[in-house]
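Let us work through a complete example step by step.
Step 1: write down the sequence.
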Amino acid sequence: MHRPVEINTVSDIVVSIGKKALLPRFARVERNIKPDGSVVTDADLECQSLLIYQLGSHWKDIDVLGEEMTKEEQQAKLESGRPLWCLDPLDGTTNFVSGFPVFSISLSLIIDNEIRMGLVYDPMRDELFAAEKGRGAKLNSNKLGLKKIPRSLKRSIAIVDFKRLSPALATGLATQPPFASMRSIGSVALDWCWLAASRCHVYLHGRQNLWDYSAGNLIFSEAGGHSSTLEDEPVFSNKLEPRSAVGAVEAELFSEWKNQIKALSR
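Step 2: predict the structure and record it as tokens.
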């Protein structure tokens, strides 16, 4: 790349567009249904268009893979081998159109099959979560680090997305919950960030897309969190195929959580 990517410049772009393209449309747009059954609005499309333009004007040699592109376009961009912005212009669209104030912009920078930078912006709370590989994570201007408090699974708050889990695991968690209480907030990117901020302690999701998790997972990892797929692989894979995700704020808690998941999956 010819021009260095400065995270402060990227942050300014993301925050500005979030305030311009999303906040004025919150709970005021109509939903459309995509062929895969997911929801899209004019806000998604406007936000993606603005971000592509602004990022391209600063870094012409970095392409953009956006959620609101065809699978063929996305695959071609992944296979090009070029540095790539991976963008979800509105993560939590159903929340957005319903007036539920939990949604975000998620943007990661992928170079040589590695996530180098991740930003997740929550316009409702004006919270920007950001991280660079090997340089830690921040929430706005404050360093983001997990609170090192010994915590057992039975005292933990969990974020769990039930509908994408196997019936056996979903039933087991619902009928024999090993945690204190459970949430599901409807934005994968913010799931990871709220975990990084210790607002919850363990996490489980059965099916996340690359643009959903890539920025948030980097932020969580740089904050000191532990994660893997249900198959014990790294969460990030530079492919379009959705990935499962398991996370916890501490190593011992992570091990305990994974063991419970395996036991309940049988």
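Step 3: interpret the result. The first strand starts at residue 32 and ends at 33.
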